[in-house]
Each structure stands twice: as structure tokens, then as C-alpha cells.
Amino acid sequence: MRATPDKSIGTAEALLKQAELSPSQMAERFEAALDVDRWRRLAPFAAIEEPIGSGDHAQIAPQDAVREKNRLDEDGYFCLKQVFDRRRIDRMHDIVRAVRADGWPAAFAFVYDDFWSIARSPAISAFLEASLGAGFAQNTVVWAHWVPDAKGVAGWRPHDDYRGGDDTFLSLWISLSDATVENGCMFLVPASRSREVTEATKAQDSLPNILFRKTLQDVVALPVPSGSLIGWRGDVLHWGGANSGSTVPRVSLALEFRSRDVKTTRFERPLIDPRAALPPFRTRLFAIVKALREYTNFEPLLLRHLPLAERIFEETSPGE
Ligand SMILES: O=C(O)CCC(=O)C(=O)O
To answer: What is the tally of structural domains in the chain?
Structure first.
């Protein structure tokens, strides 16, 4: 998704800029980011650029797939609880922990294979094909979310991911921890009400009182255990809730998929064929920093890493 600026972060932004890396820290981090063996040493239990195993790491019961596909068609979202293999999800959670403990934003977990192969099991591919059509593609808009266990800290503010994407666009969101109402699970407004809100705010930059109240009552909370899969179409308003006193950080990742041969934005490219090899290490780095440059709007703390992201972006950019 593309971010829109939030004026309220101006002061925080100025303070955070002062916390930027020094030139020597920057040089060290730049080398480290491009050093694939260093990443392998950081999480020796995780793979980078290894052949994908044939194990089926996800299961969706047929009746659940039908029910949630209907929900997607009617309300623009779906929710499949505990579909991924527990060991794999725990490993991915450990990867995010290791990456953060080494001073990187959580999204750098996308250097590891798990984060690119998680949606490739036959069960998930079948659900994606039913939702987007045969020959669907993954774009390179990816992110990992860590909502700290501190009261009042929230996930991303309300937004939509791809207005006008209709049924050619689908976001996937996978929980690596339990996501509860107390630690900031996802919330959304079903599709038809989301569209009504978007139209109203486009016309007058505010919501009529009656629509505001109806929308509040329509909000859907999506608390899910770790290893669950949620998804939504591009025009669905959604957000990460706020921690209201939980001691468990909320950890998750997000991916985006498109129907075959549709027009894509520059931000989405390069596209990835989910039936081919996983993207190479440099493409993964490119995807991470491409997103980081955009998402300082949602997560002002990322500003500290922005100059580094710009350097890695220049280095890894495939050009067009
Ligand atoms: O996890 C969150 O807080 C927000 C996720 C989200 O909105 C997104 O990935 O588009």
C-alpha cells in the first residue's frame, strides 16, 4: 500500500532525524545489509536462497475456504484462523526477534526465505487463485509489523491499500503472534461501508454524523491466534488496533497479490511469479527498503533508518 502524509508527525519527525545514524554507523550498516552471510549467521536456523522444501505448511478445511471466499465476495475481507504450521510460524517469529535485536526494523526479516515462501503452499495458492484468478502474481510490496507491548502504542492508522483495485487486488496479513483486541489486532470496515466512507470523505473531507455512527457500528475486530491468515481487497478501510495493556507484542507480516496481466504501479514492481523460484536476495532487500521509504508516514521511528534505506535502494534498484 502507498502511504499518505500525516501532518501530526512533524515534531516527532524533527526529533527522530536527530537520531539518524552517524556516517560510520551508516557505512557499517550498509555493508552489513548487503552481506548475505552475515544474515545467515544472525539467524542460523533460517534459510536464505535455499531450494523451497516440498512440505505443505498450511491447511485450510474445504468448508472454511468456501465460507471465507463468500465473505471476501460479499464484504471484501476474509479470516482463516490457524492455517499455518506452528513450528514454521514460531521460527518466523524468532527471525523477527533476531532481526530487531540486531538493530534492524522488523521488515528486514524479508531477507529470509520463509517470508517469501509462506503463501506458496497448495492450500494458500488455491485460495489465492479462487480470489484473483489463474496466473495471479505477487507484487513486491511487503512489510513486517511489530506492535510493542506498551499501552497506547498502535498498529497502522486507518487506510486502504489500493483504491480501485477491485477483485484484481488482495492483501494478505499473517499473524506471527496471537493478535488480540488487547495487543492491537486488525480492525476493518466491510467493503460497501468502506466505499461509502471513502466517497463521503472525498466529497467533503468529513463524514455526515449518521454515516459516522453507522460506520462505528459496522467495524469488525479480527482477533486471531498466531498462524492465522486474514486478507482484504484494496478499498477496504483497515487499521491495527492499540495496545490496551497487553504484555504480548503483536507481530505480523503483510503481502500483496494481483490478478494476471493487470496494470500495476511502479511501487508494486517488480512482480514475482509465485510458481517460480523465490526472489533473489538483492530483490528482497530492494522490496524492504522500497517499503521503508514509503512507510515512515505510518511509523515515524523508521526515519532513523531512512538515509540507509535510500542508499540500499540506490544500490539494489533494478531500474525500469
Ligand atoms: O498490522 C498493522 O498494524 C497494519 C497492517 C496494514 O494495515 C497493512 O499491512 O496494510
So the answer is: 1
